[in-house]
Write a structure and sequence with these properties.
Largest sheet: 4 strands, antiparallel
CATH class of the largest domain: Mainly Alpha
Number of domains: 2
Structural class: alpha+beta
Number of helices: 17
CATH architecture of the largest domain: Orthogonal Bundle
Helix content: 40-55%
Strand order of the largest sheet: 1-2-3-4
Shape: elongated
CATH topology of the largest domain: hpI Integrase, Chain A
CATH superfamily of the largest domain: Intergrase catalytic core
Strand content: 5-15%
Oligomer: single chain
Distance between the termini: 41 Å
Length: 433
């Protein structure tokens, strides 16, 4: 975070004679170009900035003057555009999102993420423009400037385009534009696979957590000081046995880190098939998307059912008990932060801080591993059923998992002949002890 601030901290701030002091050109370490920024009261956004795409100061000043005068014209025009500005439909779009939240159709996180994209970058660029004037070229220039200025990832750039499209869709619903125009497509290129644990790494992870459970650490010097030394009470009083069960449960339920924190016993049912295999039916209380009508139900493997019956219910058996770390009352943020920190201790103890691409392992790696294990076990078949059960899409599975696992399938299918092999014998020995 501090590194990013340093790369984008302005320096060489210069005013332009004869123009307001609020109009400045400046440079940042992250770019070879001069930038211009200004404060203009009124309109959809008070403070705006832009890359001049000029390396010489004299050229940058000339660009800044023209840009300033264009903003003045836009400000005057904004009053005339009024109800048809991009900013107007951005507000209507967010008002609609608020109503969807009230009806339980949308999670609040989506609203706040869109608001962040709008307020910080999109509205300063498009807020004063008539909604019908937003087209492919203007958005393409906007995205290119974001990429140049902040070196954003492909995933982040796509989210900006999605947010712009949502606002345009709002104008289409009201008949102000006949259709949403074509917008730039960000090519993904070669994506790194999501950070996951191979079967051998998963075994090492369980071994490390079992060692912490059976031999609670007493020497903080062996662990990351940001986790252990700064939180000694939290560190020593932590239940590593519950963490061990948490890891296995997450691997066998496909849950996201955001989905387990509100999961209570009342959200879980045990079902038995014709072969007497028990599985869990999980009514996910806060799925990432709430587009599905009714409850979002996910089915676990039989190992998750065994862990739940033999270990989890012995800790917390009240219907309203949270199934993991029930003593932590702050379920919105603190519980995931704390468990995330302690999970990193397990990764560190197993020497699995990052994957082969340098991506850090987090609790999300457990979900990625669950999906990878299932794809490897089935040799990539039945993706639709897997996607539906894991509350994702076949496209996501093909893009981020299947394409990277194809070459590994011959090597791993023998290790993953059955679901049970992940939690017993070689890969998860003594899961109930």
């Amino acid at each position: 975070m501090s590194r990013d601030k340093t790369r984008h901290n302005p320096y060489d701030l210069t005013t332009i004679q004869g123009y307001p002091e609020s109009l400045k050109v400046y440079r940042i370490p992250a770019s070879k170009y001069w930038y211009v920024r200004m404060y203009l009261k009124g309109g959809p956004s008070s403070g705006v900035k832009k890359s001049t795409r000029c390396e010489k100061l004299s050229d940058a000043k000339e660009f800044a003057i023209n840009w300033y005068e264009e903003r003045l014209i836009e400000k005057r025009r904004f009053a005339n555009i009024g109800s048809n500005s991009f900013a107007t439909y951005a507000k209507k779009f967010q008002d609609r999102q608020q109503r969807q939240i009230n009806r339980g159709e949308l999670v609040e996180g989506v609203f706040y993420n869109d608001k962040l994209y709008l307020d910080k970058d999109i509205l300063p660029a498009f807020g004063s423009i008539h909604i019908s004037k937003i087209d492919y070229n203007s958005v393409d220039i906007f995205i290119d400037e974001l990429r140049t200025e902040r070196n954003l990832s492909v995933s982040s750039l796509k989210k900006f385009i999605i947010c712009i499209r949502k606002v345009l869709k709002e104008a289409e619903k009201e008949g102000v534009i006949s259709s949403v125009p074509s917008l730039p497509t960000i090519k993904t290129g070669n994506l790194n696979p999501r950070p996951w644990f191979s079967p051998d790494e998963y075994k090492r992870l369980l071994d490390a957590c079992r060692d912490l459970r059976d031999n609670p650490p007493t020497d903080l010097n062996k662990f990351d000081e940001t986790i252990a030394k700064h939180y000694p009470v939290m560190f020593f009083e932590f239940d590593w046995g519950e963490m061990y069960d948490f890891i296995i449960f997450m691997i066998h339920t496909f849950l996201r880190p955001s989905e387990w924190k509100f999961l209570q016993n009342r959200h879980i049912q045990i079902q038995t098939d014709t072969s007497d295999h028990e599985q869990l039916l999980i009514s996910v209380p806060n799925p990432k998307t709430m587009k599905t009508k009714g409850l979002t139900v996910s089915t676990s493997t039989e190992i998750a059912a065994d862990i739940y019956k033999t270990r989890i219910l012995k800790r917390h058996d009240n219907p309203n008990d949270f199934i993991f770390f029930n003593d932590i009352k702050d379920r919105e943020k603190y519980v995931t932060d704390r468990i995330g920190r302690m999970f990193r201790v397990v990764c560190q103890h197993a020497d699995l801080n990052a994957d082969g691409f340098g991506q850090k392992h987090t609790t999300y790696s457990l979900r990625h591993s669950a999906l990878c294990f299932q794809i490897l076990k089935t040799k990539g078949e039945g993706l639709f059923a897997l996607a539906k059960n894991a509350r994702t899409s076949v496209e996501m599975l093909e893009s981020f998992y299947l394409s990277h696992l194809s070459a590994q399938m011959p090597e791993f299918t023998q290790q993953l002949l059955t679901v049970q092999s992940l939690g017993s014998s070689q890969n998860g020995q003594n899961i109930g002890k």
